[in-house]
Design a protein that fits this description.
alpha+beta, rod-shaped, 2 strands, two-stranded antiparallel sheet, 2 helices
Length: 66
Protein backbone atom coordinates (compact mmCIF):
# COMPACT_ATOMS: atom_id res chain seq x y z
CA UNK A 1 0.00 0.00 0.00
CA UNK A 2 1.49 3.34 -0.99
CA UNK A 3 1.84 6.33 1.32
CA UNK A 4 -0.78 8.26 -0.66
CA UNK A 5 -3.29 5.42 -0.25
CA UNK A 6 -2.72 5.32 3.52
CA UNK A 7 -3.10 9.09 3.77
CA UNK A 8 -6.33 8.92 1.77
CA UNK A 9 -7.71 6.11 3.96
CA UNK A 10 -7.02 8.12 7.11
CA UNK A 11 -8.75 11.17 5.59
CA UNK A 12 -11.75 9.09 4.49
CA UNK A 13 -12.08 7.48 7.92
CA UNK A 14 -11.88 10.87 9.62
CA UNK A 15 -14.85 12.11 7.58
CA UNK A 16 -16.93 8.93 7.90
CA UNK A 17 -18.81 7.66 10.94
CA UNK A 18 -16.97 5.86 13.75
CA UNK A 19 -19.49 3.03 13.78
CA UNK A 20 -22.45 1.87 11.72
CA UNK A 21 -25.18 -0.70 12.25
CA UNK A 22 -27.47 -2.27 9.67
CA UNK A 23 -29.67 -5.36 9.83
CA UNK A 24 -28.05 -6.52 13.06
CA UNK A 25 -24.48 -6.15 11.74
CA UNK A 26 -22.29 -3.62 13.49
CA UNK A 27 -19.05 -2.20 12.09
CA UNK A 28 -16.66 0.01 14.02
CA UNK A 29 -13.44 1.67 12.82
CA UNK A 30 -10.22 2.17 14.69
CA UNK A 31 -9.94 5.60 16.28
CA UNK A 32 -8.14 8.38 14.42
CA UNK A 33 -5.44 8.32 17.12
CA UNK A 34 -4.79 4.62 16.47
CA UNK A 35 -4.68 5.19 12.71
CA UNK A 36 -2.16 8.02 13.08
CA UNK A 37 -0.02 5.88 15.39
CA UNK A 38 -0.09 3.06 12.84
CA UNK A 39 0.91 5.49 10.08
CA UNK A 40 3.83 6.76 12.17
CA UNK A 41 4.91 3.19 12.87
CA UNK A 42 4.85 2.27 9.19
CA UNK A 43 6.79 5.43 8.29
CA UNK A 44 9.43 4.66 10.93
CA UNK A 45 9.83 1.12 9.58
CA UNK A 46 10.24 2.56 6.09
CA UNK A 47 12.88 5.03 7.33
CA UNK A 48 14.84 2.25 9.07
CA UNK A 49 15.17 0.37 5.77
CA UNK A 50 17.11 3.28 4.27
CA UNK A 51 20.86 2.95 4.21
CA UNK A 52 21.56 6.00 6.40
CA UNK A 53 18.41 5.72 8.61
CA UNK A 54 17.43 9.26 7.64
CA UNK A 55 20.58 10.77 9.13
CA UNK A 56 23.01 12.97 7.31
CA UNK A 57 26.55 12.91 8.65
CA UNK A 58 29.04 15.57 7.75
CA UNK A 59 32.18 17.19 9.06
CA UNK A 60 31.77 20.64 10.57
CA UNK A 61 34.68 23.05 10.32
CA UNK A 62 34.35 26.28 12.30
CA UNK A 63 35.14 29.49 10.39
CA UNK A 64 38.72 30.75 10.76
CA UNK A 65 40.11 27.33 11.60
CA UNK A 66 42.45 25.76 9.23
Amino acid sequence: MSENEIDQLIKDNAVGPKSAESDGHKVEQHSIKEQIEADRYLNSKKAMKKKNWGLKIGKMIPPGAG
